[in-house]
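Weekly structure sync, notes
Attendees: PL (lead), two postdocs, one rotation student
Agenda item 3: pending single-chain targets
PL asked that the sequence for the first pending target be pasted directly into the notes so everyone works from the same version. It is reproduced below exactly as submitted, 298 residues in total.
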Amino acid sequence: AAGGGGLGLGMGAGFASLHDPRVFNGLATADRTARGLDGLLPAAVALPDLEVLRAAAALDAAATPMQKYRQLVSLQNTDEATFYSLLQSRTAELLPILYTPNVGDACLQFGTLSPRPPGLYVSLEDRGGVAALVANWPAVDVRVAVLTDGERILGLGDQGVNGMGISAGKSMVYAACGVKPGWLLPIQVDTGTNNPTLLADPLYLGLRRARERGAAYDDLLDELVAAIQARYGPKTIIHWEDFAPRNAFRNLTRFQEKGALTYNDDIQGTAAVTVAGILGSLRIVGGSGGGGASGNLM
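Predicted structure, written out during the meeting:
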């Protein structure tokens, strides 16, 4: 209709491809005609490496870590291939921007981030329909689901739904280390927040209620893990990230007893790195760690 501004049936597929980060690869996007992209991109055709250089130039023009974070998240939301190529080519430089320490600021500013890093949001209000939410995630072969409830984000405490920055950031760490991005599913479990600043913030994105401490919390996690396993298989790793101690140990034990492949970075990851450091030190000094003058390092 005149003035309607809508797309006719069967039209707009190219425009959709232009905004699908799994398909769009900037000027390196292949099969332009088949994807309906003719006329929607400049005439120049670039190799993927040139698109990485283009993205790097835009990144280097950003002055602060948060500006760089926003630039990178924008790239992730528009062109995944270039984003992950850039991340793997400059890993040591970019991980502190996408994860610790800068991700803390990203969580604090999450309500004003646009775009935000992609992920799945599951709240108490979704109970009974969580499987439908998991079905909406576009990846068909998830191997690792990274979950947080946002209660203990780094040293910032309860950040509620803003904790998605942590789940998304840890997924980026996995990808930087060579895990296929399509295997990763960042999830924010929204069970409320006890942070009065967030509850009073009109830009806060999550449920405006106190944290659930009762059976509804466990029921939501049970339903979520079951939905993940039903779609992606029982061997999908459930990675718990930045849960407060009251739930971190309990969730880990509870789902281990259910037979899930489950892992808590803050509990098991920290312990594993500590033991690895001790064993590495023992190899350097020639000790055994079994006691005696050569073994007592602590």
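Discussion points:
- The two ends are 77 Å apart (CA to CA).
- The chain has twelve helices and five strands.
Action: rotation student to compare against the earlier draft before next sync.
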